[in-house]
Amino acid sequence: MGRRIGLVCGFLVLIFTFFAWRLIYLQVAQHDYFSLKAAEKHETQIPIQAKRGRILDRNGEELAVNIPVQTVYADGTHIHDPAAVAAVAAPFLEMSVEELTEKLTTKREYVVIHKGVSEENARAMIRAMEDHKLHGLYLQEGSVRSYPNGEMLCDVLGYVGPNGHGADGIEKTCDASLMGQDGFRRIEHDRKGLEIVVYRGQEQLPENGSDIRLSIDMGLQAIAEHEVDEAYKMNHPASATAILADPNTGEILALASRPNYDPNKFNKAKPEDMRNRAISDIYEPGSVFKVVVTSAAYNEGIVDDKTRIFCENGHFSYGGKVIKDHHGSGDLSIPEILMKSSNIGAAKISLRMKDQMFYDYVRKYGFGTRTGIPLPGEIPGQVIPPHRWDMLTKTRMAFGQSISVTPIQMVMAMSAIANGGKLLKPKLVLSKGEGSAELEEAPVAQVVKRESANYVANALEKVVSTQGTAPLARIEGYRVAGKTGTAQKISPHGGYLPGRYIVSFAGFFPVNHPKIMGIVIVDDAKLGESANYGGSVAGPVFSKIGGKVARYLDMEPEPTDAVTQSGEKTTISAR
Amino acid sequence: MRANRRRPSNSIEVNFLARWLVVVLLLGLGGIFFVYLKNQQHAVGDQTRVVEAALREVEAKNEALAAKITSMTSRGALQRRLDDGYLHLEAIRDTAIARVTPAVPAEPDGVLRTASREPASRLGPDAPQRVINR
């Protein structure tokens, strides 16, 4: 009897020893492993999305905002009757019941059913599901980028790609500031998937993206857009571009071009419409470039107020080729060369300069170098170095051939004439983040002396006189200085395309204290050869833009130096 | 010899028993109170979750509506409505404008400035200049 009892006891001791050992093994030796398993089952880290910063114009007008949307996803393990769920949910998801049923017939835990569902529809769907006591469809918060002004300013704003990152424009260059930093929260959930708030763990709040305030003024932008649009519809060019800037600070105030696209529907846009022509198109500037050679020569003392250059009555043979003027002239002063846009005069000025000196001035004006505007895709243009010049290159460059520039380079170069000779870096972003200090840009270089810049600026005022090439670019009540450009289009096969021109007008006003610098470029307008000039196509657009801009900014009308038919200057009061 | 007529019995130590009963009762009550508090915590947690979800919903709705307002009142949208004829611009009669300073007509187009400033020459050299750098 005692032996039996001993055996039973021994057996029990063995069993309990085994259980105790197993318990210690599971609880102690395997503690980390099973803790992790438990955590995987019940704990999860949910991301808290940072809101992308808005893009605002200089006056706080919203240019890019976020619209909250929901991604609807299904947990197949919670769906017992896919057809019933589909019948309730399909109307809210703009899907057919059959299509949704097919998607819901799954045992996977995470199946994205529909992205970008509006907040309203998503909540209504969840309520309908609850009313029918159905489970399995859940919401995931997100947002889509919206551009309230549609196509307006698309080249500057760019757009956000499907991955949530900026894909073009300011959205791309300022992506890091706009994105912010996502936060997270560690939670435990019950078997229904609901959070157990009591066991809420570590939490890091998201850092929302900074708002970006641009230098763009939407009032001016609307004016530029309207006039560029009118010119585009009227002249049917390949493209039309207008840029407005503050010549004293380098701030870009408006940038409009056609054709353009709607960044809200970027996936439907043609690639050629999405190119920012202001920074990624190069063109031969034509006569606008004469301001470079004249200001450089004046700055070096090669020409002065008394200089008169014989312009060969319109035909100048040099290096085996003939340089022609539109209207033949004899002796012309420097302002007259600009006023009449004499190619021969500009070429002869360039011949008085040493090659390297002329080249250095071209580079000092910023040609052949990216301006550094904070937009993706800027190109530096093309400037041929002196060692590759032939006999004609310098004379051609003097009137804007054999050199390729971007519109933004031309704006900054002309701004240097307007502001007393300082080349500025174009400024597009005023500040990043609420309350942050305005970003300062230092001048890139003093290209020419103030006197030289003023001399050329005053000479350019004559261009819009009745004797100049752009009387149609005048703005009533304001003194305007500017220069026309008419350049033949380069053929991809070499040489020039006959009868096809890129015409432009670059100018600023008021002349004494320039506030606005503008350029209008019309590429290949479908007009007769006799009508396709910078002064007749781009000039009027500049004038219309300038008139409206002056009224919008409430610029005080000023006394106008008008050049009479006889060429004498008279001062008239604008009031 | 006198025999002990009391039947042998084990006495109950009431004090001892009462002490332990109180201890057990207190422990029991403590446990029940702990469970009650824990349940309350969970109930409050559930309410917190519901309120947070409602807040998120309201915030999202607010953002969606704000975006809709922005889009409907944007420059582009207003311009489209103007072009389509849904909106019309009405010129404000000169007599309906209260002017702080006299109007300056911009000759020769004769346009009257809607918001005018005294020319600097009339105010004198020390007058502050308005910066139009907007």
Main beta sheet strand tally, sense and closure of chain A:
6 strands, mixed
- Largest interface, per-chain counts? A-B, 44 and 39 residues
Radius of gyration of chain A: 35 Å
Count the DSSP helices of chain B.
3
CATH topology of the largest domain in chain A: Beta-lactamase
What is the correct CATH architecture of the largest domain in chain A?
3-Layer(aba) Sandwich
| DSSP, total strands of chain A | 24
Question: What does the average pLDDT of chain B come to?
Answer: 77
Which whole number gives the mean pLDDT of chain A?
90
Give the amount of beta strand of chain B, in percent.
under 5%
The total of helices of chain A stands at: 18
The portion of residues assigned to helices of chain B is: 40-55%
Structural class of chain A: alpha+beta
Helix and strand pattern of chain B: HHEEH
- In the CATH scheme, the class of the largest domain in chain A would be Alpha Beta
Largest sheet of chain B: 2 strands, antiparallel
User: Which overall shape of chain A is indicated by the principal axes computed on the Cα atoms?
Assistant: elongated
Spans of chain B of at least 5 consecutive residues whose pLDDT stays below 50 are: 112-134
Question: What number of structural domains do the residues of chain A give?
Answer: 2
Notes on the structure:
The complex is a heterodimer of chains A (575) and B (134). Chain A is α+β, with helices and mostly antiparallel strands and 575 residues long. Chain A folds into 2 domains: 140 residues, Penicillin-binding protein 2a (Domain 2) (Alpha-Beta Complex); 355 residues, DD-peptidase/beta-lactamase superfamily (Beta-lactamase, 3-Layer(aba) Sandwich), CATH 3.40.710. In chain A, strands 2, 3, 4, 5, 8 and 18 form a 6-stranded mixed sheet that branches. Chain A has a 5-stranded antiparallel sheet with strand order 10-9-22-21-20, with helices on both faces. A 3-stranded antiparallel sheet of chain A has the order 1-6-7. In chain A, α11 runs parallel beside α13 and α12 crosses α17. The C terminus of chain A is likely disordered. Chain B has 134 residues and is an all-alpha fold. Chain B has a domain of 69 residues. Chain B is 54% helix and 3% strand. Chain B has a two-stranded antiparallel sheet with strand order 1-2. The longest helix of chain B is centred in the N-terminal third of the chain and has 59 residues. The C terminus of chain B is likely disordered. The chains are: A alpha+beta (575), B mainly alpha (134). Chains A and B meet through β3, α5 and α9 of A and α1, α2 and β1 of B.
